[in-house]
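User: I'm putting together a small comparison set for a docking exercise, and I want a reference complex before I start. The sequence is below, and the ligand is molybdenum atom. Could you produce the 3D structure with the ligand included, as structure tokens?
Assistant: Of course. I'll restate your input first, then give the structure tokens for the complex.
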Amino acid sequence: MDQATSKTSFIPTLCRMCGDRCAITVERDSAGRAVSVDAFPDHPRNRGRICNKAGAAIDVANHPERILKPLRKTDVGWCEIELQTALDEIAERIDSIRERHGAKSLAVWKGEAVGFNQQEGYARRFCRALGSPNYLSNDSMCFCGRYIGHSLVYGTWPQADFRNAQCILVWGSNPPASHPPINYAIMDGCANGAKLIVVDPRLSTIARQADLLVAPRPGTDGALAWGLINTLIANGWYDRDFVADQTLGFDALADYAAKFTPAVVEGETGVEAETLQAMATMIHQAAPRLAQYVGCGVELYDNGIDTIRAIAYLIGLSGSLDVKGGGFLPESLELRSLMLEDEIPLPGLTRVDNDKYPVLHDFRGETQTIDTMNAILTGDPYPLKGMILTGANPALTNPNSPKVERALAELELLVVRELFMTDTAELADYILPAASFLERSEVFCHSPSQTVTLTNRAFTIPGVQDEYDFWHDLAHRLGHGEYFPWQDEDEVNAWLLEPTGISVKELARHPEGMTYKPLRYKKWSERPLATPSGKVEFASEYLQSKGHSEIGKYRPPYYIATPEPDFPFVLISGARKAVYCHSRGRNIPRFLDILPGPSVELHPDDAVHLGVAEGDRVVIRSRNGQAEFPVEVMAANEIMPGYVQATHGWKAAANINLVTFDDKPDPISGFPTMRGVPVRIEKV
Ligand SMILES: Nc1nc2c(c(=O)[nH]1)N[C@H]1C(S)=C(S)[C@@H](COP(=O)(O)OP(=O)(O)OC[C@H]3O[C@@H](n4cnc5c(=O)[nH]c(N)nc54)[C@H](O)[C@@H]3O)O[C@H]1N2
Ligand SMILES: Nc1nc2c(c(=O)[nH]1)N[C@H]1C(S)=C(S)[C@@H](COP(=O)(O)OP(=O)(O)OC[C@H]3O[C@@H](n4cnc5c(=O)[nH]c(N)nc54)[C@H](O)[C@@H]3O)O[C@H]1N2
Ligand code: SF4
Ligand SMILES: [Mo]
């Protein structure tokens, strides 16, 4: 490692062991090695707290299994090659594919490890410069379901102001495991007097803290939300002035909601009338200080977007849009954009998912990865031949893993940028060593606090490229150098910041983050929202024009609508465990000490019926495939009978995505059915 100095130094930066980007300080020893991580004391994101994943950034960066040289696949296995040779060969092969099949036959895929902001911006920029509409990412099954659901109603996703709330309502999220800084804010809110309602069919960590725990049948949250809407409207417990002045479609909403009587809600969700009433009362008493957060628990069902829309309506009805303690509408910093959408419009190009999800395309400008696998295998609507993939491991994280592996193996060229040899990297023609987050620098905005922070390189490794250097070098080889004119990431940072009046130097002096705009509320009273009408859209003409329902109507999830008698259990997959981020971290000893292996969570009565005890192995089988897990027998109140939970990210037979569905998508977003999967459980 370079940058050796004669003494120890401390570098403030933001953690990227998960997407939350808490402020940390990295200690670097006199040899230039990163040796420890601590919390940075006062950044609004984490306020001096970090989770136990942060320290392992060092283990990742210094890991003996890290890939430090480019690898080319040959008939006799992997062979190390020089970086310049690898880039030359890759450029040549991309050129050849482009000549034969057109630029659209090439795709770029960014994964969760390089998601949001600048690193994602480079990948999108490169794809655009190449002239391909096929930018892909993990976001076509993560987060943008929630983003789209809320944006259809409010033009963006309102950010819950937990610390100032009087009622905090969490749907399908377990922040102590998944988003520790959100958990800190929720706990602060509760300490300030807020009541906490958690909606989760499992007794998650946050559910244990709840003042009111609501446990609907998985996938039925939409019916619960409509029951709440009905109760609020029937009692007159909604903000009449806000609704009259700022919203469209209230009558349609009220009409549809009237069907969701307490009896109907109980029949559909299993939630009793008193609980529904208690929930509505707590919302009413706290309004407008209702801070609502929706997690990915409700997203990966085939009714996800409409469920999220129904839940989102509660913000507008309770008048909590953009008020203190409610759903805040952050203002952004006018950074330059890396996207190239205006410069290179790509008219007339169909995406490889056959333009099946125009709403996903309009809101996120990306192709659905699930359909991309089909397109690679069938050549329909056109051949997809080459892919560059960075920061993702879809062979374990996308549904129907065997198909994903077949499709990626079918490509004429697959380039994977990685830190480690993964199941996806194994399928590549070239593996390029990627810099970890400690080896790069970017400008990062934390929108709920409206602060901007510069992340700092703690060290670099010769021959290991950061994301920018890679896209830059490849673009120059392919004749698109004009779009990557900056020498390095420092120059990119300066270019991005230029219109803001904040300089890199100034930003570097503020590792605690700089407030770029003071927080202001009720901005809807001054200017239109970013919806087509400028109003809150309970009913969306836009969505209707795309062939979907104008309001977020409830449809039962797949497993209720289409029972599969041979598969009597229902699988919920993917509940986050505190240490592992998706498929990462299984090579980190300190994580394995905390959680040594996979498990499937089972109700004790189900364990008795199946004749299995803690630690016994079971096969989880769906009509799609099977996986094998050791049993974890839960307490009777921790999971519902008939439902099982297994977290994704484990390899080989314990890969739960051998079982999940890629063929029952949400019709609006194309999100796959990773929860609510009918399965059979058999003792091994
Ligand atoms: N440690 C760790 N942290 C992570 C990640 C990780 O892999 N590991 N991944 C990151 C990413 S990319 C994401 S998207 C986030 C996700 O983070 P969250 O959105 O907080 O998701 P989870 O923590 O999985 O919690 C989902 C909860 O939803 C519940 N659930 C399942 N089905 C339903 C349902 O039908 N209705 C309701 N109401 N609840 C349901 C589950 O029981 C579970 O408790 O986490 C991020 N943070
Ligand atoms: N069954 C089921 N499956 C799921 C989910 C679920 O709930 N249930 N959740 C889904 C969700 S929400 C998401 S976001 C996806 C995530 O799925 P992926 O995007 O595939 O995320 P990871 O598995 O974390 O893969 C990240 C890869 O990037 C590598 N990496 C780490 N740091 C860097 C870096 O700095 N640069 C580069 N180039 N590479 C790096 C890691 O070694 C790792 O192999 O999984 C989804 N899969
Ligand atoms: S929650 Fe933990 S892993 Fe995620 S950014 Fe914060 S410290 Fe890092
Ligand atoms: Mo995600």
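The longest helix spans residues 83-101. Residues 302 and 558 are 6 Å apart (CA to CA).
User: Thanks, that's exactly what I needed.
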